Amino acid sequence: MSTPDRIRVAAVLGAGTMGHGIAQVCAAAGVETRLFDVKQELVDAGLAKITKNLDKGVARGKVTEEAKATTLGNLSGTADFTAAVTGADIVVEAVPERLDLKQRLFADAAAHVAADAILATNTSSLSIAKIAAGVPGPERVIGAHFFNPVHIMKLLEIVVGPATSEATLARVQAFGARLGKDCITVRDAPGFATSRLGLVIGLEAIRMVEQGVASAEDIDKAMCLGYGFPMGPLRLTDLVGLDVRLHIAEYLSEHLEVGDHFKPPKLLREMVAAGKLGKKSGEGFYRW
After folding, report:
1. Domain of 32?
2. Residue 246, domain member (yes or no)
3. Does residue 213 sit within a domain?
4. 135: nearest Cα among 99, 172, 171, 109
5. What is the rounded distance in angstroms from the CA atom of residue 249 to the CA atom of residue 98?
6. Is the same domain home to 132 and 74?
7. CA gap 63, 129 in Å, rounded
């Protein structure tokens, strides 16, 4: 059994934008880390992004060559699910925001890990209770919502479901601190704290573009220079993905009784339909 401050092996499911970043910070903290995705080329792409991040860190004097070597030495990748999760002390899923997918992954992982292994979801809005439904030992299911880019952003939003145990919470809080994160703890409510607040601002910024109030660049500049935002809400939307924002908006609009705050703007739907998803497609509110 792992002690609260000593998780030895981590499995990260999903090698995309969030998954490879989570794997990087786990490996940098001295944890044996296995990065999984359904195809080896996706795993390789995730590992390459980690190496690129570390190279940038070295070039900027933020990461030593020794730290880079240690991080990469703690890291492996595989397209074999069983090999990835077997014996892991914590399994972190960072797959697309589909409830059925997350439920299935955790149910499958539970068959290969110890009864006290933590099952942590990086979901930004889905119900922890629903993700835990049908998983043996729902007391070990918890939200661990990281922020992009994971190796730079300090926040970790820990989301406690109705069945999550105090022991699981304590272990994840200790683990988050070990990863160098500042943790907040919230209860399992739609959108948690960060997605709920951030999305309101992002959707309103999109409505302002839709109504011709100002350009995307000027709206972002207003929030950065006037309110101290490190990044404007529309540039952030491009980085998160317009399709992801639309999905979360639809989910919160359905599950929160707060008027039309989360009703997706027509412009957002049109841009997603046109394939303008942000940075990953090369165009959103900005050209990338």
Report:
1. 9-187
2. yes
3. yes
4. 109
5. 14
6. yes
7. 38
- The bridge status of strand 141-145 relative to strand 118-121 is parallel
Token representation of residue 238: 């491009």
Mark which of 135, 158, 187 sits at the end of a domain. Answer: 187
Run of H or E including 93: strand 90-93
Residues 127, 234, single domain; the answer is no
> In the numeric block, which tokens belong to residue 214?
């100002």
Q: Which residues contact 103 (CB under 8 A, 6 or more apart)?
A: 130, 131, 133, 134, 135
State which H helix or E strand residue 134 sits in.
none
Q: What is the pLDDT of residues 145-171, one digit of tens each?
A: 999 889 999 999 999 999 999 999 999
- How far apart, in whole angstroms, are the C-alpha atoms of residue 128 and residue 161? 5
Cα distances (Å, whole numbers) of residue 34 to 72, 83, 89: 11, 9, 11
Rg (CA), the chain: 19
The packing angle between helices 194-210 and 242-255, to 10°, is 110
Sequence letter at residue 47 = L
pLDDT tens per residue, range 204-228: 999 999 999 999 999 999 999 999 9
